[in-house]
């Protein structure tokens, strides 16, 4: 599948042998009618600790900018792919395809822990 080849070329995933954790890819229909290939990390998400610090409300964020002379905005495009996983945790994101078994070297976008790590620094 094109998605896996692209991730492999970009260095976002790597081949793995005999992982303890193994997830399956799933195909999900998007609102525009096209299809998206994802990895189902349901079991991994259940095993991960939950973040007890949710994002603040938008009104508090806006209030915090009052009185400042300079504001900065960042676009987190491909934010998950910019955070490298600790080598000890990579195999926990293993998934199987018709071409082999791979794991993520960067945070996968469909895991609970990824969302917490991407939002965390923004607090």
Automatic annotation (TrEMBL):
Record-annotated Reverse transcriptase domain positions: 28-109
InterPro entries in the record: DNA/RNA_pol_sf, Rev_trsase/Diguanyl_cyclase, RNA-dir_DNA_polymerase, RT_dom
Pfam families on file: RVT_1
Listed PANTHER family: RNA-DIRECTED DNA POLYMERASE HOMOLOG, TRANSPOSON TY3-I GAG-POL POLYPROTEIN
Name of the protein this chain belongs to: Reverse transcriptase domain-containing protein
Record organism: Microthlaspi erraticum
